[in-house]
Design a protein that fits this description.
By secondary structure, the chain is α/β, with parallel strands linked by helices. 31% of the residues lie in helices and 22% in strands. The protein is built from 14 helices and 21 strands. Strands 1, 2, 3, 4, 5, 16, 19, 20 and 21 form a 9-stranded mixed beta sheet that branches. An 8-stranded parallel beta sheet has the order 6-9-10-11-12-13-14-15. Strands 7-8 form a two-stranded antiparallel ribbon. Helix 5 (170-183) crosses helix 8 (221-238). The protein is globular.
């Protein structure tokens, strides 16, 4: 199968230029001057499919390196299956996800990874890989880390929050970091001081402060900044890299920036919700509406300048990646588990379908440039997590994961039109100045002009190598 994408502006991390992209089966074979006659033939005449991208951007398929499909949490499970979640991702221009195999305290690590493979196999519309969560570290976990690196799972997430569920103490974190220093893996850190937060939560509930907004005030920025600092110190002791997930507080990112200025292998990630939503407007929405915005780390106060600071840190590369932390729970029956007690509200927000659009809006608003959009959403996550150049770039030999994006189009985000298995939208009514028109996953058109043309079994597991950012 030969496909020619012609007439578009191909965007990379180094710029944008008019070019035609030639695809043979699942791979890109050439990026050519527009209208080039090459390979001994008229490319348009000899292609099975010609896609006209005139007036549009051609960008590498998005890589969302932080998702939670079918994840048990708080007595329920995230509402998107691998089937529904990966289809929604495709609608939004994401062609690869990395999901978290959720290990809980007391479980055997390799059994958890096997369970995640069983959930995903044959049920993904796009390609996928896995990170492994480590909830507490013992000898079995260290042995599993080494084995999983050999199987293409080269990153491990740890939690400084959720005691009794995911929490690891400092000694356990240090052991995992020491193992990562030896085997080349990347430690991903949920950085919040969970034991201090538990005290603040119990005190709030005792006062009768039970509404969703108090989820945010009992997880103040100090609990994020302190945990980030502590994790960096542990990583320094171990000689290991550390990657901070879903950063929301400007003070915490400032600590990352200071470590990076010292030359340490420290990286930060944020998510669209922290760039656009706020404690005042969303977590403290009237009634129980704020439950829709309960996730951790929490939303921060707009009045304190966190959102603008995060955009600035995206420009300076102290925040290197934008993911979604896609972990949807329906408002009815799931978020409602926390009525009368905010600590019982399942933590999570659905957003896998809207990341590319929302970060492109940052281009329109002048927050970042066009190439930085591609870098944050596609190329850097592919490099960070051992998928590059298979993913994250439009180049000969790379997978033909392509998005035809119309800068003159428009996308209105709403529960009425999204494809996630979620009964509300965290961005209801938001209008983005851009639109995903066509999406190719490994050369197969999966989205085209408002139609899903893929299948739930198209996606393949990606065995990842080590991060390209570690020195």
């Amino acid at each position: 199968m030969r496909t020619l994408v012609t007439g578009g502006l191909v965007v990379s991390t180094t710029g944008a230029s008019a070019a035609d992209v030639l695809v043979e089966d699942e791979r890109i074979v050439a990026v050519l001057e527009p209208g080039t006659t090459a390979l001994g033939s008229d490319l348009a005449a000899t292609s099975d499919l010609v896609i006209d991208a005139t007036g549009k951007y051609v960008v590498p398929g998005g890589v969302d390196c932080h998702t939670h499909m079918e994840m048990p949490f708080g007595g329920t499970s995230s509402s998107d299956t691998f089937e529904t979640g990966t289809q929604a991702a495709a609608w939004g221009g994401t062609t690869t996800i990395i999901d978290f195999a959720a290990h809980h305290v007391g479980e055997r690590v390799l059994d958890v990874m096997a369970a995640w493979h069983a959930k995903a196999a044959g049920n993904c519309a796009i390609d996928y890989g896995f990170h492994q969560i480590l909830a507490g570290v013992d000898d079995d976990a260290i042995k599993a880390m080494n084995e999983l690196v050999g199987e293409g799972v080269s990153s491990f997430k740890m939690f400084m929050a959720y005691p009794g569920v995911f929490y690891s103490d400092d000694g356990q974190i240090l052991r995992a970091m020491q193992a990562a220093a030896d085997n080349g893996a990347l430690i991903m850190m949920h950085a919040e001081n969970g034991t201090a937060i538990d005290v603040l939560v119990s005190q709030a509930l005792a006062r009768g402060d039970t509404d969703p907004g108090f989820h945010g005030t009992t997880r103040p920025w100090e609990t994020e900044e302190e945990a980030v600092h502590r994790a960096i110190m542990l990583a320094r002791i171990a000689g290991a890299p550390v990657y901070f997930v879903h950063m929301s507080a400007k003070q915490a990112v400032s600590t990352v920036a200071a470590a990076r200025d010292e030359g340490l292998n420290v990286f930060g990630e944020t998510c669209p919700q922290y760039l656009y939503l706020s404690l005042e407007d969303h977590l403290f929405a009237p009634g129980f509406e704020g439950a829709k915005y309960v996730f951790s780390t929490p939303l921060r106060a707009r009045a304190e300048g966190h959102q603008e600071a995060l955009w600035r840190y995206l420009r300076t590369n102290d925040l290197s990646v934008v993911s979604t932390d896609h972990c949807p729970f329906c408002f009815k029956e799931q978020k409602e588990l926390g009525q009368g007690n905010f600590s019982k509200i399942p933590n999570g927000l659905g957003g896998i379908e809207h990341r590319m659009d929302l970060i492109y809006q940052g281009v329109v608003d002048g927050q970042i440039g066009l190439s930085r959009w591609v870098e944050l959403c596609s190329t850097t996550p592919a490099r960070m997590f051992g998928m590059y150049p298979k993913k994250g770039v439009i180049a000969p030999g790379s997978d033909a994961d392509l998005v035809i994006y119309d800068p003159n189009g428009q996308t209105r985000i709403s529960v009425d039109t999204h494809h996630m298995n979620l009964d509300y939208s965290g961005y209801e009514g938001t209008v983005v100045a851009g639109h995903v028109d066509t999406v190719l996953s490994r050369g197969t058109v999966v989205i085209d002009q408002g139609r899903f043309l893929g299948s739930k079994s198209h996606g393949s597991y990606v065995r990842r190598s080590l991060s390209q950012y570690l020195v």
